[in-house]
Known about the structure:
The complex is a heterodimer. By secondary structure, chain A is an all-alpha fold. Chain A has a domain at 300-490 and 493-497. Chain A is built from 20 helices and 2 strands. Chain A has helices spanning 7-28, 33-58, 80-107, 113-132, 136-155, 160-191, 196-202, 210-227, 236-242, 245-270, 272-279, 283-302, 307-328, 331-362, 373-376, 378-392, 398-412, 416-442, 459-477, 479-493; strands at 61-64, 75-78. Chain A has a two-stranded antiparallel ribbon with strand order 1-2. Chain B is mainly alpha-helical. Chain B has one domain (2-124): Helix Hairpins, CATH 1.10.287. Chain B has 5 helices and no strands. Chain B has helices at residues 2-9, 13-31, 35-56, 79-110, 115-124. Chain B is elongated, with a radius of gyration of 21 Å. The A-B interface holds A 137, 140-141, 144, 148, 151-152, 155, 160-161, 163-164, 166-167, 170-171, 174-175, 177-178, 181-182, 185, 188-189, 194 and B 26, 29, 35, 38, 42, 45-46, 49, 52-53, 56, 80-81, 84, 87-88, 91, 94-95, 98-99, 102-103, 105-106, 109-110, 118, 122.
Amino acid sequence: MTLIDHLPVFLIAIPILASLLILVAGWWDRRFCYPISLVTILSQFGAAVIILAQVMREGTVRYYLGGWAPPLGIELAIDSFNGFILATILLLSVATVIYARKSVEHEIGPEKTIAFYVLFQLLVTGLVGMTITGDIFNLYVFLEISSIAAYALIASARKPRSYLASFNYLILGSIAGGFILIGTGNLYAATGALNMLDIARLLPASFELATVHAGFLFLVIGYSIKAAFFPLHIWLPDAYAESPSAVTILISTVMSKVSVYALFRIIFTIFTTAYIVDVFPVTGFILFIATVAMIAGAVIAIAQSDLKRMLAYSSISQIGYIMFALGVANQIALEGGILHILGHAVMKGCLFMVAGLIIYRVGTSRLSDLGGIAKVMPISCAAFALAGASMIGIPPTIGFMSKYYLVLGALEAGHWVYAAILLLGSLLAVGYIWRFIEIAYFRDGHDGGSGARTLEAPASMLAPMVALALLCLLLGIFVEGLMEIVGPAASLLLGGA
Amino acid sequence: MIGSFYELFFARYNYWMAIILMLIGLYALIAKQNLVKKLIGLNIFQTAIFLFYISLGEVRGGTAPIYLPEGVDALYVNPLPHVLILTAIVVGVSVTAVGLSLIVRIHEEYGVIDEAELLQELRRR
C-alpha cells in the first residue's frame, strides 16, 4: 500500500497526535500552538480534497483499520456523500482556526490558548471521525469525543453564564448520547452487526421487530437532540450565545452539520428508504416538524435583542430546511438538502464571524447598541449583507440554489403546501436579517463625529470572513460543479449507485 | 395467560431492571433541582444502559471467552457488548468529570448549585 491509501486514517490519527504536540509545544512556548494547529487542519483539508477527488474517480474508498476486514474490524468508508461533508467541515475548520487566533487572545485570555487549541483539535478530530467512520458504534465514540471537547470549549468563555450553558448542554448531550447508545444496542441485538453496511444488509429480515422500531426511534431522537432539531433545540441558543466567538463559529457550522449528517446516514444508509416509507412511515411527520422548525426558529429570531442569539435561533430555522429534505426524501430535495448543509455552514460561519468581530471591537452584541455600526465597520457589515442575502435566498447565492432545489423536490413529491411554507420561511428570514441591516446602516450611534476612525478588526479575522462571504456568492454561481458531487451523493442515499 | 405474563416480565427481568433504572435516572435528570443530583441521575441513566448491554451478551451457562486448548468444548458469552461498554464507561467517567468541574465553577461564581436559586441569582444580576 502506498501512502495515499492510508490517507483516511491519517485524517483521524494526525490531529490526535497534533493535539498532544500542541500541549507539549505550548508548555515550551505558547506561540507554537497556532501554527501547529493551522498546519494540521490545512493538511487535513488537503487530504480530504484528495480523497474526495479519488472517490469521484473510483467510487467509495474503504479503509480497514489495522488491516482487519469487517465484520471483525472497523472500517472507514468515504463515499461521495460523506466526502462532500468532510471537505465542507474541514474548509470551515480552516477558516475558523485562522479567525480564532486574535479572537481567542481577546476572549479567552492568553494563558488559556494552549487548552483552547488542544480542545479545538480534539473537537475537529471527533467530527472528522464521525463523518468518515463506517461503524455505528464508532460513530457514538467519536460523537462523545467531540461533545466532551465542545462542553469544555463552551465553558471556556469564562463568563458565569457560559458555565450554565455548558452544563445544560452537557446534560442534554449526555441524554442524547445515552439514547444513541441504546439505539445502537437494539440494532446490534436485532442483527448482530455493527458495521453500517452489514446492518443495512441484515436489517430487512427483522424490519417488523419492535426492537428495530425502538432502536430507530432512539437513534433518531438522540441525533436530533445533537443536531438541535426543533423542538429538541433547548440547549442551542445558550450554547451558541454564551460561548467564545471562535467556538460559536465551529459548533454552529461544523458540529450541528455533522449531527445532521449522522441522521441522514442512519436513516438512509442503515434503515434505507424502504423502512422509512413503507414499514415505519415517518417522513410525513419529519416534514411537518421541519416546517414548524423553519417558521418557529425564524419567528423567535426576529424577537431577539442580541445579535448572536438571533443568529442562533436562525440556525434552528435553517436546520429545519435541511430536515425538510429528509422529510421529502426524493432525489431533487436531497440534493437541495445536501447543498444546504454546505450553504448554511458557509453563510452562518460568515454571519457569526461578523458577530465575533463586533464583540471584538465594540464589546457587545446587543442589537440596540449597534446603531450605525456600518459606518465604522464597513467591510464586516457588507459581508453580513452578502451572507444575509444568501440566508434569505436571493439569487444567485448558494442559499437560493439550495432552497430552489428543496422547493422543486417538494413540488415533485406533491407537497404544495409545504413548499409554500418554505417560501414563507424565507420571507421571515428577511425579517431578522433586515433588522440588523437597518440598525447597522440607517441608525445613528456609532458615527463618533470623527469620521476617520475605523474599527475594522485585524486582517487575520477579516480575511476568513470575507472569503466565506464571497464563497456564498461564488458557490451559488458555480453550482454546476458542486452538483456533480451532490447529485451522486443524493442518489447514493436513495439506494442508487 | 400466566405463561405470557411470565414470558413478558420474568423471563426477561434483566431488561426490565435496566428500563426501571433508566427511568429513575431520567426522572432525576429532569425533576431534581440540585445540579449534583442531576449528575447522579445521569450516572444512574448511563449505568442502566451499561447493564442493558452487558446482559445482552450473556449466554446461560456460558463461560468467559478465553481460547481453550483443542478438543475442549465450551459455550462462550458474547464478548463484544462487554468491550463496547468498556468504551462507554470511559465516556461516562469523562462526562461526569467535566460536569462536576462545571458545577464547581458555577458554585464559585454564584454560590449556589440549586437550579431555582440559580435562576433567582441570574435574575438579580
